Amino acid sequence: MGKNGTKIRILVIDDDAVACEFLQEALLRAGYEVEPFTSAREALKEDLSRYDLLLSDIRMPDIDGLEFLRKVHKQWPTLPVILMTAFGSLETTMEALRLGAWDYISKPFSPDAIRSLVRKALDVRELRQLRTQGQGEIREEPQFIGSSAVMVDFYKQIARVADASASVLISGESGTGKELTAHSLHQLSARRDKPFLTVNCGAIPETLLESELFGFEKGAFTGADHVHAGLLEAAQHGTIFLDEITEMSPALQGKLLRFMQNGEVRRLGGHEARHVGVRVVAAANRDIDTEAGAGRFRSDLLYRFVVRLQVPPLRAHREDIPQLIESFLKKWGYPTVRISDEAMELFMGYDWPGNVRELENALRQTLLLSPFAVILPENLPGKLHPDRTVGSPLETAERQQILQALETTAWNQSRAAQRLGIDRKTLRTKILRYGLAKEGLS
Ligand SMILES: Nc1ncnc2c1ncn2[C@@H]1O[C@H](COP(=O)(O)OP(=O)(O)OP(=O)(O)O)[C@@H](O)[C@H]1O
Ligand SMILES: [Mg+2]
């Protein structure tokens, strides 16, 4: 049933009248109410909130499907839109999904295919409505920004593997968007209405990590006074995201490997093996191969990951920086702030060892310290100015390593020092000397 228990209403737009008829026929048979249009411009004159779902062709003479989607989302942000096209390219797919299309189908398709897609979209919509009820506002899903060749190529890789159940290992420097990638994989998969659970393997002590993942039976250990299903069970049919997987102990790596081989979960202190269908997505800093080579990470577990995705560092797609900045400004409610050309040059010239997160933080800091309508070079953090003496190449490398260690450990100085193999006092001194500061002011 649609809104207020009435029949579900679907709006169909295709400039080809025959295609319109075909869709109308296919959907009427499934019991939906269908209103066909052969022009998006005409459709936009309607109050579209009367519909439960929109279906639109992409290539149309007056307003095309992507433009239509943009316009619809401005006015009715939660209305699901499915796009169709006979000219499917991965770029259009990604663009459609990036703009928030619910789904995307290539022509020709069978009546069954479109009916099942529509049913899925309506199911998910219902689920989201339930989930957002009582939560007040709808939480906006973070999305990838950037249309450089490097990023488009990366989107294609994501799009290609998203819907498979294959396990994925995401590598990339700190702040490049590994978590965002994991999210996107889930959102673009058929599992999107199932749980997406994240575990940060570096932030939880080993024993706790094990019981969190696998669960425990009552009495499994001192203090286990109740039965606890682990996250692997809780993520049934969904995705589990194991962040910082290199931080997992060898013993637990072995246990994870067994799970990935047979899909069985045995709670701590339990005998019963439960079969769990969960997609495993993990993230690691780039050095996971080194870790495996040095025997600190099990190679057999590494090979268990069917797909590897490497998130490009920001310096490999600098041309996306203006677009990233623009989207952050908009997101934070500064749509009118302008970055002068000279300042933008500095943003684009810097190397961004902390990648998009560092860019985000630098921009936030700039806005807080210089709340002006136009941002000039002198408003930018010192490190963005190339003429500043930054020290010898060796010092620069050291500084970057330290910064990376701090970022990966969420600025936990003890853990960062441990990672770097120096003591905490030395780390403190170096932090002061290099003028490092946690830049997130939020
Ligand atoms: N291409 C992008 N477009 C928009 N935002 C991005 C992009 N890449 C990263 N971000 C944003 O940058 C921040 C860092 O991204 P994320 O947490 O996914 O990185 P990460 O690789 O997991 O970092 P870490 O190695 O520190 O765990 C987030 O706020 C994310 O939304
Ligand atoms: Mg991360």
Question: How would you portray this structure in words?
Answer:
- It is a single chain.
- The protein is α/β, with parallel strands linked by helices and 442 residues long.
- The protein folds into four domains: 3-132, Response regulator (Rossmann fold); 149-310, Rossmann fold (3-Layer(aba) Sandwich); 314-384, Helicase, Ruva Protein, domain 3 (Orthogonal Bundle), CATH 1.10.8.60; 393-433, Arc Repressor Mutant, subunit A.
- Helices cover 43% and strands 14% of the residues.
- It has 18 helices and 16 strands.
- The chain has helices spanning 17-28, 40-43, 65-75, 90-98, 111-132, 149-162, 178-187, 206-214, 231-234, 250-262, 288-293, 299-304, 321-331, 341-349, 355-369, 393-408, 413-420, 424-433, and strands spanning 9-13, 33-37, 53-57, 81-85, 103-106, 168-171, 196-200, 215-216, 228-229, 239-243, 264-266, 273-275, 279-284, 307-310, 338-339, 374-375.
- Strands 2-1-3-4-5 form a five-stranded parallel sheet, with helices on both faces.
- Strand 4 (81-85), helix 4 (90-98) and strand 5 (103-106) form a beta-alpha-beta unit.
- Helix 13 packs across helix 15 (355-369) and helix 16 packs across helix 17.
- Bound molecules: adenosine-5'-triphosphate and magnesium ion.
- The site of adenosine-5'-triphosphate (ATP) has 19 residues, from helix 7, helix 15 and helix 16.
